Amino acid sequence: MASQVIIGLAQPFVLAAPTRYSDLWFSPRGRVSATALASLANPFGGALGQLIGPFLATSPSDIPNLTLYVAIISSAATIPSIFIPAKPPTPVSPSSTYVRPPIVKQISLLISSANFWLVFIPFSVYVGFFNSISSLLVQILTPYGFTETEGGIAGALLILVGLVCAAVTSPIVDRSKRYLLLIKILVPILALCYLVFVWGPPSGSIAATYVISSILGAASFSLVPVALEWLVEVSWPVGPEVGSTICWAGGQLLGGIFIVISDALIDGKNGNPPGNMHRALIFQAVIACAAAPLALAIGYVGGGAKNRRLEVDKGLAGESTNGGEVERTVAL
Predict the structure, then answer these.
(1) Mean local confidence (pLDDT), 281-288
(2) How far is CA 111 from CA 10, 124, 174, 220, in A?
(3) Distance CA 249, CA 122 (A)
(4) Distances from the Cα of 112 to the Cαs of 109, 233, 252, in angstroms?
(5) pTM of the predicted structure, to 2 decimals
(6) Per mean pLDDT, which of 96-100, 234-238, 246-250, 298-302 is the most reliable?
(7) What does the alpha-carbon distance between residue 147 and residue 131 come to, in Å, rounded to a whole number?
């Protein structure tokens, strides 16, 4: 339990790092791809662990050795971080030289922005439901006669198809800068997937479940880096790590809450079939559909939705110098 708590305490630093790292080390032509690679490495590692773990631990007596292997690999993976410089020798873009306001001021600017809330709420909801459904997928499917192996395949499709699609969409957005367009395409797809999934397991068709899982993973993984990078753009000069941390915290918190609620909505022995989670699927479909209009309202509510950081990098924003540091101010 103590080790789980320590890992949980470290998780926010891992989740918040990608947007800050890509802002500092990458030009506008590569930020979304860098954020995608770093952000999605986390679930990719989790998927590898789920696939490899059963082969290394075939009996309860093998669990201590498996834990030791994981500890060795994860410890070795931290070694390169010791040698990473604090920043590149030469700034990669004008915006990376900006002196950030105090953290309290940044949070104040962020929470006073309507665009932040229009991103934060849907992001938290969909990350929360992704965490919930990926954790409970086998439990959702088995009451309808599907095997644990079929549930594992559906979970693998959820992650692997998502990774492939994110690898395709991220470079495209890097070049086109059409963040908002992709967000408004992916969010309705996500809401529709959660709605259709209400009838997926009860249909008895594992093919339908595989298709829904694949589309759900593709939309979810493609959305994460684009939404995080667009939030940095629209909330600039707030630091990229501030908005990212708050969004990930919201998603993780709602994920835990959704899992507890879903467990409470499981039908008992008198259910048809016994132990089914149909009510939980209806719950997530309703909330997912209710969150979608918020993302679709971006640009129409709360003022404009400009790529402010990109304007700075293109020299379109006002700038002044103070003590040798470049300072730029863009009103939220």
Answers:
(1) 95
(2) 25, 15, 27, 24
(3) 13
(4) 5, 16, 23
(5) 0.84
(6) 246-250
(7) 21
Contact between residue 22 and residue 34 where contact means Cβ atoms under 8 Å apart: yes
Region class of 91: left (phi > 0), else alpha (psi between -120 and 50), else beta: beta
Report yes or no: 208 and 195 within 8 Å, Cβ to Cβ. Answer: no
Burial classification of residue 320, based on how many CB atoms lie within 10 Å of its CB (0-12 exposed, 13-18 middle, 19 or more buried): exposed
Pairing of strands 319-322, 325-328: antiparallel
Amino acid letter, 287: I
Are 36 and 166 in contact, with CB atoms under 8 Å apart?
A: yes
- Asked whether residue 212 carries a pLDDT value surpassing 90, the answer given is yes
Give the model confidence (pLDDT) of 77-125 as tens digits: 888 888 888 788 888 788 777 778 888 888 888 888 888 999 999 999 9
Judge contact between 49 and 156, C-beta under 8 A.
no
Contacts of residue 129, Cβ cutoff 8 Å, sequence gap at least 6: 194, 254, 255, 258, 284, 287, 288
Please check whether residue 30 is in contact with residue 177, taking contact to mean a CB–CB distance below 8 angstroms. no
Please name every residue paired with 298 in a beta bridge, in sequence order, or none if there are none.
301
For residues 233 and 307, the answer to whether their CB atoms sit within 8 Å is yes
Q: Are 34 and 26 in contact (CB under 8 A)?
A: yes
User: Both tokens of residue 73?
Assistant: 């690999």
Please give the structure tokens belonging to residue 155: 């979970």
Share of the chain above pLDDT 70, in %: 93
Which residues fall within 8 angstroms of residue 21, CB to CB, at 6 or more apart? 34, 38
Q: How far apart are CA 32 and CA 227, in angstroms?
A: 9
CB 253 within 8 A of CB 124: yes
Residues 231-259 have a mean pLDDT of 88
